[in-house]
């Protein structure tokens, strides 16, 4: 049985498991410690240096994500010293992150922007060193803007976990940077998008194409949507999970300028039927393996 010990975080006594890190204990108890590179699915890297905390008896601040708790440990998560350290670290991070806030996949949920506001960061204190870094098109589905990358390596690790290894670290002009591999193709799983804390990865959008089509009045614009959208998109607008919004969705699309809107739910039934037929044919022919379906 894992041993339980008592520590103090911001003068609050907390019981926790001895094997946990300071950051894990803080998160479990609703105490917010800023971090960018930390992700529960990935290895601890302590590269962003934003989760630094003060520990009684330690001569210098320690990273909360990599420091294991010990019995009787007394921890401070906010102080003038810590604020100054975090502010400087954030200003250095912004020096390797080209800002494109108006057209960023993170939108209003950007942790980097929220932290900059909290710590009164001068985002242009240091010159951007990545202004000439390229945007990599990873096939038709994904793109990676390396000028926004803060080198946390989360994407490289998750790509390796997926057994793809399309993303790797390479040296360029005395710096190491994330680059797509020419040998291992991307499978468009999108896990890099989920793990990137600064919006350097994004799905290739078609919003501009849709907007252009809507402006062409000499064409009949037709939209169609899959069945799942009827009971899922409402959550993005604060509705209850599972609430049916077919009429609202149709009205909204028409308001955008579409001439016709079709609910193609019958298409999903056809898909399921065809998949079942394919599986039966495989079994009859004695073929082994798994039949995968995105539907």
**Main sheet: strands, sense, barrel:** 5 strands, mixed
Number of beta-strand segments: 12
Q: How much of the sequence is in beta strands?
A: 15-25%
Strand order of the largest sheet: 2-1-5-3-4
Class computed from helices, strands and strand pairing: alpha+beta
Compute the average pLDDT: 91
**Which descriptor suits the 3D outline?**
globular
The portion of residues assigned to helices is: 25-40%
Number of helices: 8
Span between termini: 43 Å
Describe the structure.
- With 295 residues, the protein is α+β, with helices and mostly antiparallel strands.
- Helix content is 28%, strand content 18%.
- The protein has helices spanning 22-28, 80-94, 111-118, 154-161, 191-195, 207-215, 246-256, 265-284, and strands at 4-9, 12-17, 52-55, 62-63, 74-76, 135-138, 142-145, 167-172, 175-180, 201-203, 222-225, 260-263.
- Strand 6 (135-138) and strand 7 form a beta hairpin.
- The mean pLDDT is 91.
Question: What are the salient characteristics of this protein?
Answer:
295 residues, 12 strands, alpha+beta
Summarize this, please?
By secondary structure, the protein is α+β, with helices and mostly antiparallel strands.
SSE topology:
Elements: E1 4-9, E2 12-17, H1 22-28, E3 52-55, E4 62-63, E5 74-76, H2 80-94, H3 111-118, E6 135-138, E7 142-145, H4 154-161, E8 167-172, E9 175-180, H5 191-195, E10 201-203, H6 207-215, E11 222-225, H7 246-256, E12 260-263, H8 265-284
Parallel strand pairs: 1-5, 11-12
Antiparallel strand pairs: 1-2, 3-4, 3-5, 6-7, 7-10, 8-9
């Amino acid at each position: 049985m894992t041993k339980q010990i008592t520590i103090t975080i911001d003068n609050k006594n907390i019981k926790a498991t001895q094997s946990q890190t300071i950051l894990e204990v803080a998160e479990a108890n609703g105490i917010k410690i800023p971090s960018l590179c930390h992700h529960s699915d990935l290895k601890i890297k302590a590269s962003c240096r934003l989760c630094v905390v003060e520990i009684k008896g330690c001569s210098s601040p320690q990273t909360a994500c990599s420091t294991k708790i010990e019995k009787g440990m007394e921890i401070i998560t906010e102080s003038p010293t810590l604020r100054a350290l975090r502010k400087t670290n954030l200003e250095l991070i912004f020096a390797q992150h080209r800002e494109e806030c108006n057209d960023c996949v993170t939108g209003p949920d950007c942790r980097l922007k929220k932290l900059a506001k909290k710590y009164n960061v001068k985002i242009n204190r240091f010159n951007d060193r990545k202004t000439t870094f390229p945007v990599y098109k990873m096939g038709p589905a994904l793109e990676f803007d390396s000028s926004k990358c803060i080198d946390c390596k989360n994407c490289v690790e998750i790509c390796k976990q997926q057994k793809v290894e399309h993303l790797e670290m390479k040296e360029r002009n005395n710096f190491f940077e994330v680059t797509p591999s020419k040998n291992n193709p991307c499978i468009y799983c999108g896990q890099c998008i989920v793990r990137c804390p600064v919006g350097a990865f994004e799905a290739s959008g078609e919003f501009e194409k849709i907007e252009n089509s809507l402006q062409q009045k000499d064409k009949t614009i037709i939209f169609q949507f899959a069945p799942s959208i009827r009971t899922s998109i409402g959550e993005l607008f604060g509705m209850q999970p599972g609430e049916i919004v077919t009429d609202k969705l149709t009205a909204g699309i028409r308001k955008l300028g579409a001439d016709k809107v079709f609910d193609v739910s019958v298409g999903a039934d056809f898909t399921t039927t065809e998949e079942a037929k394919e599986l039966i044919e495989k079994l009859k022919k004695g073929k082994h393996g798994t039949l995968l379906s995105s539907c």
